[in-house]
Amino acid sequence: MANKYGKHVPYLLGVLKMWLVIMVPLFVVVWYVSLCAGCSSAPYPTTPAYSRSEAAECREANEKLIAWIISESRESLRDVNKDGKVNCVDYSVVFKETWDRLLWARKERCDFVVNDNVPDKWCHMFVTVKNVYWPWDTVKVEPQANVNPYMKDKSAIYIDNHWDGKYKPVYDKTSFAQYKWVLDKCEWEGKREYYMQNGGTTR
To answer: What whole-number distance in Å separates Cα of residue 50 and Cα of residue 28?
Structure first.
């Protein structure tokens, strides 16, 4: 009986090997295409690890965190650059200081932005925050917003909900704002020369 079927073993092994060579790559291609199709149909960037409901929960948690930072920053709000005014520069600087103090391990997730809207003769400073819980999302925050973490509606944190349409993203200057903020701070603290002699880095 063994001799009767044993002669077919090499043939069967060859068929199995051929099937694996064809089907395994085909399966990988189909899986990858279906994965990409699923991601592209989402309303905002997701990964297989994040469902739409989970991404929404992450965004809500981030909004609460930002509202908390805004609320905490009010305690140290002051005329930072001694120009006799408390305006967007001071609110942004104090927000960044509060962020760095309370979330020191995630300092790099908060940056300054200057929106220099020359046609409308409007210049404004605010901050951007990369979502702590959902890394594909960056929030443009208005530090002057009247909001706290206990409010149900925290949409006031978004700069798009302020300034009656004067804010236009095309005029955002992120890296320039970060550099100028450090340079100005060194000027206020009398450290400009030391700063420039040591490379003038923005971090």
So the answer is: 22
For the chain, the C-alpha Rg in angstroms (whole number) is 27
CA separation for the pair 69, 98 (Å, rounded):
7
Give SS3 for 173: strand
> How far is the CA of 95 from the CAs of 111, 119, 169, 196, in angstroms?
10, 28, 20, 25
Looking at 48-116, list the stretches that DSSP marks H as alpha helix, in order from N- to C-terminal side: 52-73, 88-102
Report the distance separating Cα 63 and Cα 115, nearest Å: 22
Rounded distance between C-alpha atoms, residue 43 and residue 107, angstroms: 29
What's the pTM? 0.64
- The DSSP string of 136-152 is T-EEEE-TT----TT-S
Per-residue model confidence as pLDDT tens digits over 142-183: 999 999 888 888 999 999 999 988 999 999 987 656 666 666
Distance CA(35)–CA(186), nearest Å, equals 49
Rounded CA separation 130/45 (Å): 14
For residue 101, give the DSSP letter.
H
- For 57, the token pair is 């929960």
* pLDDT, tens digit (0-9, with 9 covering 90-100), for 119-149: 999 999 999 998 877 767 889 999 999 998 8
